[in-house]
Design brief:
Blueprint lengths: L1 H21 L15 E5 L12 H13 L2 H4 L5 E3 L8 H4 L11 E3 L4 E3 L2 H4 L23 H4 E3 L23 E5 L12 E2 L8 E6 L6 H19 L1
């Protein structure tokens, strides 16, 4: 009877852990990569990036956009705006400074954007980040108000402070990117008035998403621990 109850307890634990163990991210990296990774996307909305707002507001924008998608919400990860303000550079805000190695970054359609932090900020990316990652590419990669995102950032991940565009959180000439680009224009394009009611979109980047096998290993480890305790 005790043996039967132990088996039932273990079976119950397996069932309890099954949703977490079997949960799949919105994508499986399309190149066969099986380690931890991050996701990046462009919001569908046109939030403002003027002087009335700061990085906390921008993080709130991209988090709300991500959590509105059930599959992204299920990941249980954090989301940050991939942009710069006067207070912080994009590469520091998002933990992608080239001084640290980092991990691969993908679009939500499984296309690799960068191999690591240095690759993200070397001036080019491997695949374009369209609006909604390809579902609504727009009619022209050069159309500012259709595919642009607020970035306030140079192509190396530092805050823009001169030339064609400044940091986010200002009223005038904020640096923007152009959707569909893989050259430096993916992050550092032209500029847009921060108070323009047509606005632009924002890039959101996730925290670290563990490989799918991680939760399965945790479940197996939990079962093994119960068995060891029973034997003791």
């Amino acid at each position: 009877m005790k043996k039967t109850m132990s088996l039932l307890a273990i079976a119950g634990l397996v069932l309890a852990l099954a949703p977490a163990a079997q949960a799949e991210p919105i994508v499986t990296p399309g190149d066969g990569y099986a380690g931890p990774y991050r996701l990046v996307f462009a919001t569908s909305s046109h939030p403002m990036a003027d002087a009335s707002r700061d990085m906390d507001d921008f993080d709130t924008d991209v988090t709300a956009a991500a959590n509105a998608v059930a599959e992204l919400l299920a990941l249980g990860t954090t989301w940050q705006c991939l942009g710069s303000t006067t207070a912080i550079d994009a590469r520091d805000h998002t933990g992608t400074n080239p001084s640290s190695t980092g991990i691969p970054i993908y679009t939500t359609t499984g296309l690799r954007v960068a191999d690591d932090n240095a690759d993200l900020w070397d001036g080019t990316i491997q695949n374009a980040i369209w609006l909604d990652d390809g579902t609504s590419p727009g009619s022209d990669t050069q159309v500012i108000f259709e595919n642009a995102t607020w970035t306030g950032t140079n192509s190396n991940g530092t805050a823009a402070s001169s030339g064609d565009g400044l940091q986010m959180g200002g009223d005038w000439n904020i640096r923007i990117s152009r959707g569909g680009r893989t050259d430096s224009g993916w992050m550092s394009g032209v500029s847009l008035n921060g108070t323009d009611t047509r606005g632009a979109r924002m890039y959101g980047i996730s925290g670290v998403i563990p490989e799918p096998a991680t939760m399965s290993l945790l479940a197996i480890g939990g079962i093994a621990l119960i068995r060891r305790r029973r034997r003791a």
